[in-house]
């Protein structure tokens, strides 16, 4: 990045902090921000600022929301006895886009990973269990990713709930193993939810 004026260098360095953006892409993006209309680039900067300043976690499902309780959690049209557990907000929105699911959600913002130091506490699993018990949830659908940590998380939650009345199910493997829920197309998502099975613990 040598040779760039200070302000441009700063933008390149900030862009590089984003996932999947290396130095070359960061340079290209910074140049394109300067080449396009000033108005468009300023609109981009302001929309990021506005989003970051005005987005919080829904106090019920932990998804990103502009209000204390998100639209899904506060909707009278949702089935409040079914709760779908997902890893990321992207997964929440992917299931919503598929349009079939009518229950509520819980967003973990990750999955259990001892190597990265992510455990039940970081994922809010205590709060999840408390919610399931206090709200009289009848079914918990676990829609974590079909990879090692997603499966470990599913089993962990199923174990915590095995003494309660709630039925714990796992979405079907229409989602490719090792894949991400959030990238599934809508038909795959609907099939994965329809084909869910009860988790049987040994
Ligand atoms: Zn919510």
Core attributes:
Dna Topoisomerase Vi A Subunit, Chain: A, domain 2, binds zinc ion, 2 domains, 14% strand, 202 residues, 7 strands, Helicase, Ruva Protein, domain 3, alpha/beta, two-stranded antiparallel ribbon, 8 helices, five-stranded mixed beta sheet
Notes on the structure:
With 202 residues, the protein is α/β, with parallel strands linked by helices. The protein has two domains: 6-54, Orthogonal Bundle (Helicase, Ruva Protein, domain 3), CATH 1.10.8.420; 57-198, Dna Topoisomerase Vi A Subunit, Chain: A, domain 2 (3-Layer(aba) Sandwich). The chain is 43% helix and 14% strand. It is built from eight helices and seven strands. A five-stranded mixed sheet has the order 4-3-5-6-7. Strands 1-2 form a two-stranded antiparallel ribbon. Helix 5 links the parallel strand 3 and strand 4 (103-107). Helix 1 packs across helix 2 and helix 5 (89-98) crosses helix 8. The mean pLDDT is 92. Zinc ion (ZN) binds next to helix 4.
Short structural summary:
With 202 residues, the chain is an alpha/beta fold. The chain has eight helices and seven strands. The protein has helices spanning 6-15, 23-35, 38-54, 71-74, 89-98, 125-134, 148-160, 186-194, and strands at 56-57, 64-65, 79-86, 103-107, 139-143, 167-170, 197-198.
